[in-house]
Write a structure and sequence with these properties.
By secondary structure, the protein is α/β, with parallel strands linked by helices. It has helices at residues 7-17, 32-43, 55-64, 80-92, 106-114, 154-170, 192-205, 220-224, 226-231, 250-263, 288-317, and strands spanning 22-27, 47-53, 73-76, 98-101, 127-133, 141-144, 177-181, 213-218, 244-246, 267-273, 279-281.
């Protein structure tokens, strides 16, 4: 049965609106779309925005589109690079628990996030996930990496997979099914992505990737369609049932996500993982629901990490 568009996102937003809101540094919100996204996130109770950018430009946009800035914290900066650096500083100071991209380039924001001395690095590679609401599917699909790592190495793919699994856990899926995509479900020495897919699955068998069921290589059809998997006689708990699709490279992941958006009426909420806090990546073409869904996912991630830390502390005390 085909669900109406936005249905899964609406349930997600409604659930997260009932959680405590989180402080969010909105980086350089100097156009209508990014400023309204911050206002809407605050209105539904997801975030407490801190607007980081040139005050005069933000106030001008707010006046032009009738947005009331009273009661909203602002941090004045001279330009977009400074906005990204100051926003990262707010996270380090504990004043913000997530970042939201405004009207600056993605690479400007992520450069501040991954800066060696002043950034928000962890031991994990930073990677991007789309959480896709596809009307013809009964579940959300996570696609990685479609926005950060261009031609990831096998080592980098380990972190890309683990970040996506951790995201699925935060979304309430305790053991997501992960399909490592290629053009075929057979290991072919001439197709590097099939070899890396097989290696990733063996690494999961040995505990180097945890928390999910991996299979690959899998072609897209037999990753998401049970009938296609049966025709190919694939005996796998993942084939036809995948919750996470790991693309061989950014080009493939980006085209897959945009194909679903523009030809299958899907929505794509973007989030960057692997840093100290979630980074909400939105596009100027995103709908209001997609922007709110991205914020809701970030809120879930923050609360999931807090619960995990509390459990770890209790375990250590015991």
């Amino acid at each position: 049965m085909v669900e109406a568009r936005h249905t899964k996102y609406q349930r997600l937003i409604e659930y997260c609106s009932g959680l405590p809101d989180e402080s969010c540094a909105v980086v350089h919100p100097c156009d209508r779309v990014s400023l309204e996204g911050a206002f809407e996130g605050a209105r539904v109770g997801l975030i407490r925005p801190i607007l980081v950018g040139p005050r005069a430009r933000i106030e001008s946009v707010a006046r032009e589109f009738g947005l009331d800035l009273s009661g909203i914290e602002m941090v004045d900066t001279p330009h977009s690079h400074a906005s990204a650096e100051v926003a990262a500083g707010l996270v380090r100071e504990g004043r913000a628990s997530m970042l939201m991209k405004g009207s600056l380039h993605t690479h400007e924001l992520l450069s501040a996030v991954v800066a060696r001395e002043s950034g928000l690095r962890t031991g994990r590679r930073v990677s991007h996930c789309f959480v896709m609401d596809v009307p013809v599917l009964d579940r959300v699909i996570i696609i990685a990496d479609a926005g950060v790592n261009i031609f990831p190495t096998l080592e980098e793919k380990v972190d890309i997979v683990q970040n996506a699994i951790d995201l699925a856990h935060a979304l309430g899926n305790p053991q997501p099914k992960v399909a490592i995509l290629s053009a075929t479900e057979e290991v072919n020495p001439k197709i590097q992505s099939t070899i890396e897919a097989a290696a990733l699955c063996k690494m999961a068998d040995r505990g180097q990737i945890a928390g999910g069921l991996l299979d690959g290589p899998l072609a897209l059809d037999n990753a998401v369609d049970l009938n296609a998997a049966r025709i190919k006689k694939l005996d796998s708990p993942v084939a036809g049932r995948a919750d996470i699709l790991i693309a061989p490279d950014l080009e493939a992941g980006n085209m897959l996500a945009k194909s679903l958006s523009f030809m299958a009426d899907a929505d794509a909420a973007g989030i960057v993982l692997g840093a100290r806090v979630p980074v909400i990546l939105t596009s100027r073409a995103d709908s209001v629901e997609t922007r709110l869904a991205s914020a809701a996912i970030a809120v879930l991630l923050v609360h999931h990490r807090q619960r995990s830390l509390q459990r770890a502390l209790v375990g250590n005390a015991a």
